[in-house]
């Protein structure tokens, strides 16, 4: 008859009640059992059964709870008061259960959120339907509200939801006695739970696959299943950390700050808390140890006029006119910012001329030296600059490693732009050979690298892509120096293949090196015939190509010029939309990135994929875009395997062997299709010298020839053309 059977044994015999019928109808049913002393009431949907137990014992001693099945080792037979009951007779439950609560404990939720330490789950746990209640909007990152102290001495169960477009900010903070404290913050789009029991601060970092500042609701659950175990669950991804010190109690006191702290507290916050401002966005569903808190109601001890009920989205939004010169509009909560890194321009809307330097006839060099203890290993690199020159052959930029022969070199070869890079196996090259740039007009070069793959774009021409065949290394080890205007031969103390002309708006991995030179940054060295410019002449601008002819005024300070162009829209930094965007986003994981990371992140045990996010510390001016997918290359050069270790390869570009390079470049009539034209092949020969002295190259330039472009390749767009 498929009814429910409830059996109860208090030690003096089993009492059995049956209720309902035809319960195997694939419909939801609600069962509720209440006992007060010897009285039992069983409710199934709208049916009720009541019974009274006989005997003197009224206490139920619970050793374990089994849901859906009995323990495989616990097949007992009871012979009490004539009732024979064996667990072997009861089959396992097959179906769905939800909302199992016993004596106020929601065991399903506690098990899923890591709130129970001694449990075992073999059933499939479904995703939680997250209902948003009591939402509030923090309209500014310079505000907060104060709540009563969080009680977390030996146990804690904290839950809240949030959504934002901001990548950083304190969500919650409660100080304590001596060194004790707990905090929740966003850092670079990931969530940190930081606490100190008195033995030193510990940090648990979210291990979600993507960043959390995507303007979607995310759920945070923090718990202490035991005195030494601490859990952080963000959405459905769980991370845990154990405390090993002598102290096991979290002794908090004072206000629980929500959305930020008092302005005078930021400078005295514990070292592991990175944020120096509050949270801007929405917070909802705040639950502290089972008590629902209304952040806009009577629970607030210190209110704020900048915190309002409800969740309102961004007021000021990106538009197609927000950023000039194809700058990328980055939406924030109540504003937007323009990412100008790949434009060669600067300013709040990428409309201002960037700092420019002139490299004179007597040659000169600007060098940025990475500190010896802060030399990053990178898997992704971004380089952009503007220039004008009449040189046919010169080195514009050279980036060198401090521990290997890894290098990148942007140069002019017979008036064409060419980038050559080596990550430890062979020289890889990519260039724009369909037109010359030594015409004394302003040109913009954008280069991106993702592992061994790369793209390059000059002005608004098609993006050239390269994906080398064969096994390639992917890490540029230990960035040591960036040279602009040539390359220094330290043995001869001479600048080789010097560049003569103007360089402006130079950005490499977020470092605005020319701006740093103006500010007399100690990491910058300027030598030779190099002069700071006041401006690049306005009357010679060419709107169609981002080009202008090159008269310039020399002055001690750089000023700005206005320009125009179409912007490109972008999701906030670290918030990829995989189904609509062709950019490469590495999975976000434990927060370690490919530049140098000074964070003291604790090792966590996660339930999700522990992916590594290659990120460098961007310039405070803007976020930084991520390189696009690179297309398969037509390069047929043979790969020589000189090293099998991305991280520790020392041989680099080899030791004196001669390499012949074949570079293919082409263009299409438009970005989405059309005929192909202007395809050229350039062959040049380089002789690779050992790491010391630096590389010296010789060039052989045959006449340019035409050849068809393979029809099965198309060009991914990174920046759209200006209409």
UniProtKB/TrEMBL annotation:
Superkingdom assignment: Eukaryota
Q: Where is the EGF-like domain positioned along the sequence?
A: 314-351
Q: What is its main location?
A: membrane
GTP-binding among keywords: no
Task: Give start and end of each Laminin G domain.
Answer: 134-311, 355-530
Task: State the GO CC annotations.
Answer: membrane
Keywords of the record: Disulfide bond, EGF-like domain, Membrane, Transmembrane, Transmembrane helix
Composition-biased stretches (Polar residues)? 558-573
UniProt subcellular location: Membrane
Q: Which InterPro entries match?
A: ConA-like_dom_sf, EGF, Laminin_G, Neurexin-related_CASP
Q: Where is this region: Disordered?
A: 558-577, 612-634
State if Acyltransferase is listed as a keyword: no
Q: What is this protein called?
A: Neurexin
